[in-house]
């Protein structure tokens, strides 16, 4: 039996099993010049070489930035690597820059915990116990207040006072928590920006280009992450969770948010060493 060719990419009516083959067939002009011997990944690294936040602001559109760095053919070739082509929406160069920077905190050696995701929670519990942390399961937080330069946490059965407070409660259940600290957080426009609006669509025909409609908030994920590190200046309150991170990925976003809090409140630069 002959070997079946696996098609992974398509562009300009040409189907190929890998990016190099696609480059040779659909983008032959790239076979000469600076990108002749570069892979897709190498072209991407070239585009971002010596990049700064200020440079990212000079070209707001991410696609325009790629075309500027790679040329029109290089830009089309890089975009062709995606199986799903997106012809609407416009990604921000600054957002991509900040996301790339924050992903540099993590390695790309992805592993699956042998015992499932619960292994992560168990490892956190063991580490907390090692440092003498007291944990209480199934204790609902009812209120967060300030009192005499301290913060008080009220649960169903306990009241705890602390000098520093990390809040790791998702936005929807957080809305049920009372107290002056909780109310001040909930009234902040940064907190309001992460609350999604309920919607349902089975099928729809739109009379206008909905994808050009601006979001309900002008705040970026970078703004949220910066705010959550210390929402109230000079106070030892920190909010963590993937909603407050530049990274939207659940695990990476939550971890980066926690790293920001540890650096801000305890000057811990590398928590993985503890």
Automatic annotation (TrEMBL):
Q: Could you name the domain of life of the organism this protein comes from?
A: Eukaryota
Q: Which GO terms describe its molecular function?
A: oxidoreductase activity
Q: Where is the Amine oxidase domain?
A: 20-209
Q: What is this protein called?
A: Amine oxidase domain-containing protein
């Amino acid at each position: 039996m002959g070997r079946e060719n696996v098609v992974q990419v398509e562009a300009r009516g040409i189907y190929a099993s890998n990016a190099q083959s696609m480059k040779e067939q659909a983008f032959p002009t790239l076979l000469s010049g600076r990108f002749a011997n570069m892979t897709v990944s190498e072209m991407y690294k070239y585009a971002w070489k010596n990049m700064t936040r200020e440079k990212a602001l000079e070209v707001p559109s991410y696609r325009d930035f790629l075309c500027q760095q790679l040329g029109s053919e290089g830009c089309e070739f890089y975009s062709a690597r995606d199986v799903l082509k997106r012809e609407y929406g416009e990604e921000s160069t600054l957002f991509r820059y900040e996301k790339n920077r924050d992903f540099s905190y993590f390695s790309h050696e992805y592993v699956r915990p042998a015992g499932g995701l619960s292994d992560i929670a168990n490892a956190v519990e063991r580490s907390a116990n090692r440092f003498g942390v007291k944990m209480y399961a199934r204790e609902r937080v009812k209120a967060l207040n300030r009192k005499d330069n301290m913060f008080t946490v009220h649960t169903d059965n306990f009241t705890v006072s602390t000098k520093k407070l990390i809040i790791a409660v998702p936005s929807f259940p957080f809305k049920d928590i009372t107290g002056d600290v909780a109310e001040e957080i909930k009234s902040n426009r940064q907190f309001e920006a992460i609350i999604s609006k309920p919607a349902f669509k089975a099928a729809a025909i739109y009379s206008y280009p909905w994808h050009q409609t601006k979001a309900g908030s002008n705040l970026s994920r970078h703004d949220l992450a910066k705010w959550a590190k210390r929402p109230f200046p000079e106070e030892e309150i920190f909010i963590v969770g993937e909603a407050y991170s530049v990274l939207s990925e659940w695990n990476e976003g939550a971890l980066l948010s926690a790293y920001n809090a540890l650096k801000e409140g305890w000057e811990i630069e590398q928590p993985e060493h503890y």
